[in-house]
Design a protein that fits this description.
UDP-n-acetylglucosamine1-carboxyvinyl-transferase, Chain; 2 domains; Enolpyruvate_Tfrase_dom; cytoplasm; cell wall biogenesis/degradation; binds uridine-diphosphate-N-acetylglucosamine; four-stranded mixed beta sheet; 14 helices; single chain; alpha+beta; UDP_GlcNAc_COvinyl_MurA
Length: 420
């Protein structure tokens, strides 16, 4: 079993290069199913989740080739066999469910294992299915599977009760080749949705308004193969911003779209951080000032991202005063609290609210990465804690962070992986 060891307390210094966004790459890989030509994704982040979706496509008889030159991932789905997709990989990673929209669109058929719950919440798929039905598909659920069928999908007006990222992506990809026009209202506005639409538009799709609450998709007959570079990972960049803050350091982050991080940057400024933009894609983060307590409510974009909630909680554990974090997106996303308390944090939970009273220090302990971002929160806490922090269940971290120890080591952190 692999573990990560972090030894604090050390200042960080230097530059870090951010990888392309996991949450952009996964729906883009799923969307390659829409077009039976070669599609190349450059700068692909080599992550466990990316490997899972590539394995899934290989199992469905697609050609998936990876080249270390520019991390080019080339996918050709011309031989895809739509009837075999009921594999366990869907249960392993929820984002695999994003192949349903493209499969339904191209083959008029898709049957997948129900993705089920995961440790941060129940994560239903009702909104995805509502969208497919509105486009004319028959949906059947039984024996742990969901099956969707349609002779031809027809554009419609679809209102999402909640701006779900996955549902917006699945409906978007399902409607790109449909007859007529589809309008998604109360759509998710995350930058990764805009990136998916940009990718599809470069292939010949006709999508307007992605990245805003109303997306209009005019169906086209076919898409063509392209080469595409996804956006940078805003959550990875945000994690390194907090690393600068929690270690009272200055670091430069390369590969950042400041606009995508506006909700995080504004909160961190309130907390006492300073930012200096350098060129188009870099930012210097100065985390040396004393940090203030802040209140945070996670919300759909452009609100504060739930995927940054656990990392900022590590920082707030060490600020002067009381901070309140309200998690409105996932009902069970406070599992890292128990772990932070093991390190000396003072946190109480009341339903979806965590009350964090700052302490003067954290101390290294044996802790668990209870989910992907919670794992990052443990590394951050470890960087600021006295002594040694030993993090287990790090497979969660590998799902979403490329070479995380190496990136932190390059900044001067003492962090390494052991196999026990
Ligand atoms: C995506 C991100 C994930 C992020 C989340 C919220 C990817 C691969 N993952 O997950 O990192 O934390 O957005 O920003 O991009 N819901 C329903 N019915 C549905 C679908 C969702 O009720 O049909 C609910 C969920 O239970 C949850 C909320 O909507 O409470 C948000 O989920 P959603 O936006 O769909 O997240 P994902 O796409 O799964």
């Amino acid at each position: 079993m692999e573990k990560i060891i972090v030894k604090g307390v050390k200042k960080l210094d230097g530059e870090v290069n951010i990888s392309c966004a996991k949450n952009s790459v996964l729906p883009i890989i799923a969307a390659t199913i829409l077009c039976p030509q070669d599609i190349t994704i450059t700068n692909t982040p080599i992550l466990e989740d990316v490997e899972v979706i590539c394995t899934l496509l290989s199992q469905l008889n697609c050609n998936v080739n990876f080249s270390k030159v520019n991390n080019d991932l080339t996918i050709n789905t011309s031989n895809l066999n739509p009837v075999d997709a009921s594999t366990d990989l869907i249960r392993k990673m929820r984002a695999s469910f994003l192949i349903m929209g493209p499969m339904l669109s191209r083959f008029g058929y898709c049957k997948l294992s129900l993705p089920g719950g995961c440790n941060i919440g129940s994560r239903p798929i009702d909104l995805h299915l509502k969208g497919f039905k509105a486009l004319g598909a028959d949906v059947n659920i039984g024996h742990g599977f969901v099956e969707v069928k349609a002779n031809k999908l027809t554009g419609n007006r679809i209102y999402l009760d909640f701006p779900s990222v996955g549902a917006t992506e699945n409906i978007l990809t399902a409607s790109v080749l449909a007859n007529g026009t589809t309008i998604i209202e109360n759509a998710a506005e995350e930058p990764e949705i805009e990136d998916l639409a940009k990718f599809l538009n470069s292939m010949g799709a006709n999508i307007e308004g992605a990245g805003r609450g109303k997306i209009t998709i005019h169906g086209v007959k076919e898409l063509k193969g392209i080469k595409y570079t996804p956006i940078y990972d805003r959550i990875e960049a945000g994690t390194f911003m907090i690393a600068a803050a929690i270690t009272n350091s200055i670091i430069k982050i390369n590969g950042i779209n400041e606009e995508h991080l506006r909700p995080v940057i504004e909160k961190l400024k309130e907390c006492g951080l300073k930012f200096e933009k350098v060129g188009n894609q870099s930012i210097i983060v100065d985390g040396r000032e004393k940090k203030k307590a802040v209140d945070i409510k996670t919300l759909p974009y452009p609100g504060f991202p739930t995927d940054m909630q656990s990392q900022i909680m590590s920082l707030l554990c060490l600020t002067n005063g009381i901070s309140i974090i309200t998690e409105t997106i996932f009902e069970n996303r406070f599992m890292h609290v128990t772990e932070l308390v093991r390190m000396g944090a003072n946190i109480k939970i009341d339903g979806r609210t965590a009350i964090i009273e700052g302490v003067s220090k954290l101390t290294g302990a044996k802790v668990k990465a209870t989910d992907l971002r919670a794992g990052a929160a443990m590394i951050l806490a470890g960087l600021a804690a006295e002594g040694e922090t030993e993090i287990s269940d790090i497979y969660h971290i590998d799902r979403g962070y490329v070479n995380i120890e190496e990136k932190f080591r390059n900044l001067g952190a003492e962090i390494y992986r052991i196999n026990v």
